[in-house]
Structure formats: C-alpha cells, structure tokens
Amino acid sequence: xxxxxxxxxxxxxxxxxxxxxxxxxxxxxxxxxxxxxxxxxxxxxxxxxxxxxxxxxxxxxxxxxxxxxxxxxxxxxxxxxxxxxxxxxxxxxxxxxxxxxxxxxxxxxxxxxxxxxxxxxxxxxxxxxxxxxxxxxxxxxxxxxxxxxxxxxxxxxxxxxxxxxxxxxxxxxxxxxxxxxxxxxxxxxxxxxxxxxxxxxxxxxxxxxxxxxxxxxxxxxxxxxxxxxxxx
Length: 232
Prior knowledge:
- There is one protein chain.
- This protein has 232 residues and is α/β, with parallel strands linked by helices.
- The protein has helices spanning 43-50, 96-103, 114-120, 122-126, 137-149, 167-181, 194-200, 223-231, and strands at residues 5-14, 17-27, 32-36, 55-56, 60-63, 66-67, 81-84, 155-159, 186-190, 203-208, 211-217.
- The chain has a single domain (31-41, 72-231), classed as Rossmann fold.
- The chain is 31% helix and 26% strand.
- A hairpin with a 2-residue loop joins strand 5 and strand 6 (66-67).
- The two termini are 32 Å apart.
C-alpha cells in the first residue's frame, strides 16, 4: 500500500548544522502515528523540513507516492496537510471565528466548516467573537486544532500539542483526537507526553540525535520499555 506521507532517508539542516540524519518514516491513510523523543533531538525539524523551514539535502518526501514539492504553512493545505504548530500561534488581533476562517482560506472541500468545528468544540462557538488569545491554554489548543481542520486535511500534524496543558486537558485532547481519527483523518503526533501518545497512537518512531532509534506498534510495547528507548 502506498503511504499517505513518507520520509525516505531525509537529511535536513539549519544552515551548516546537520539535524536530521537519514530519517525514514511513514503515515498511511487514516493512521495515527507518533514521533517521540527528548527535547532537542530533531522532532520539530521533521515538521520544519516538510514546510521548508529547514533545508533538505538528500532523501525524499512523498505524498501518496509522488514527490512533495516545497510547501509552506499556507500552501500545505493544497496537498491535504494541516499543521497544528508548537505554541499554537493564535493570531491575537483576530477573534476566534476569524482565526478559524483563516484555516479555510484555500476552500478545500470536505466535511469541516464552522458548524462542524463548533460541534466538536462548543466552547469556541460560545466565545466566537472573543480574541483568540483571551482563551485558556487548553481552549487555545482547541482553536488551533479547529483552525487546522477547517483546511479539510487528509493528514493532521500536531507538534507538541500537550505543551503547557494540565493533565485533565491532555486527556480531553486525546479523546477529541481519537474521535477525529474515526472520521478518516490521519494523524502524525509529535509529542513527549507518553500518556497522550499511548492513548492515541497505533505506531511510533523514537528520534535520538536526529535519527530514528526505535519504531514499533504501540500495543506491543509497555510504557517502561518505551520510556527507556526515549532516554537512550
């Protein structure tokens, strides 16, 4: 089966600094995959390479078997990719509804529109005229996910979505993401929070020093083994 997204022996750089070393990974249609690792090992560089914020020198990135051209945050949706960035990047001078509408700028057809997002996150409907940055951290993460869904992606990439959130909010986020997976959206989760990863992911890759050091099926590995592989 052809992968929805595939990194094939990708090397990536920031200037002269070599960050990713021959990284290979894939996400199939409708699959939930996690990328794990400590801070500074290159996890976010995977996203940045996809969005041409890091320079790829060697290897290939493919979408449904075809080479993926250089994309940016605002053009990734044309290829069926939406990214929920680390730090959420909510625009402070726009209301919740205006932030959501940004996600639909390219008008890609699909099931996700304002009503569908508000049904998923009712608090956003209640506060739709409020500035996006007036929300709590958990609500801002809901807004960031909702904005990404407005692009009607085939693949949703989340970069450290649990960062700064209370455990109860992380559990709520996991439930929402599981529901999303049931709609057919593939998920690539870049995360350190093992509970969220185990709740959501079917497969995983561990990144260490910019390379894949372990991979497997989530249900076949216990948490202690997974934690040890991250700490190596």
